[in-house]
Amino acid sequence: MLLMIIVISVLICFSYFLMILKFILGWKNIPSFEPKDSIGINFPVSVIVPCKNEQKNILKLLSSIAQQSYQNFELIIVDDHSTDKTVNSIQSAKAYLPQIRLIHAKGQGKKNALKEGIAEAGSDLIIITDADCIPSYHWIEAIALFQKHFPSDLIICPVCLSGKNNMFSRLQTLEFSSLVGVAAGSSGAGMPILCNGANLAFRKKTWLKFQHNLHDDELSGDDMFLLENVKKAGGRISFMKSEAGIVISKTPDNLQKFIHQRRRWAAKSKLYTDWSIIFVALIVLAISLLNFAFLALTAFKWYYIFGCLGVFVFKYIMDTRFLYLVRRYSQLERIWGYSFVLSVFYPYYIVFTAISALLFKPKIWK
Hints:
The chain has twelve helices and ten strands. It is of the alpha/beta class and about 375 residues long. Strand 2, helix 3 and strand 3 form a beta-alpha-beta unit. The chain starts with a helix and ends in a 7-residue tail after the last helix.
C-alpha cells in the first residue's frame, strides 16, 4: 500500500515537473516583441467588443481605443440586450470616436454577439476584447505589426488583471498571470493550450472556416474552441509577448463572481478534444487531489503528513519559479510571498471548481 502510494506520488510530481519545465523553456523560446518601424503599416483592422450592461466600464474602453496610436480600424460594438444605459454611453462616444459601429444583437448571449459582430467585420484581421478591459496605447498597432512580421491564423495576446488594493485581488492577479504564462509557454513549446477572448486576434477567414465547430450551445468558449480547431488543422498559432499589446481587465469584485467566472471556464472543458489540453488539466487536477489524499491518510497514519508537506513544497517551488518568469503580467512585487498564500488555497479551489462545474452548469455569461 505504502509503496503504491509512493510510486503514484512520484509519477504525478514528475509529470508536473516536466510540464512546468516545458512551459518555462517555451516561455524563454518566445522573443519579446515591441512595435517598431511601423511606418508603412496601414492595413485595416476590425475591433469587436460584445457587451451587456457595461455602462460603468464601456466609456473607459472607448476612450482608450480613441487614443490608440494606430487609427486605421473600425470598432464594432455588439450590444447583447443591455437593460442599463450602455447603449446611450456608446452613442455619446461617437462624437470623439467616429469608427464606432453599434450593432444590436438579434440573438442572445456573448457567443452570438461575437458571431454577429464578426459577420459584419470589413477587415481580414480581427481583434476581440471585453467591454471591461483597458488596452495599452500601442495595442492595435502592436498586433497589426506582429501580424505583418509573423503572419498567423490566431494570435494569443497578453492580459493583465487589475483590481482593488487587497489580498483577494492580488491573488487573483497572480493566479491569472500564471494562465498568461501557460498560454505563452505552451505556445513557445509548440503545443498551445490556452488563450483568452479578452485579448485575441485572428483572421476573419480562419473564424469563418471553423465557426460551425465552436459549440454554440455553450455560453462561452469561442476562444478555446477556435484554438483547438486551428491547432488541429495545422494553422499557425502565435503568442505575442509584448507589453505594448497588453489589455488590462478587472478582477471579479467578490468571491461569488470569481467562482461563477471560473465555473463558466471549467464547464466547457468537457468538450475539449485536444490531448495536450486534457493532459495538462489532468496533471494539475491530479497534483491537487494528491494533497487531499495525503491529508485524508493522516487520519490513519500520522506520517502521511510528510507526504502532504512534501507535495506542497514541491509544487510551491515549481509554481513560484514559473510565476517569477511571468511576473510582468501580474505587476506585483513579493512574488514568493503571494505565491505561498496562493499555494495554500489553490488545491481546494481547483478541486471545488472542477466538481461544481460538473454539477452546476452556468446559465448566464454576465
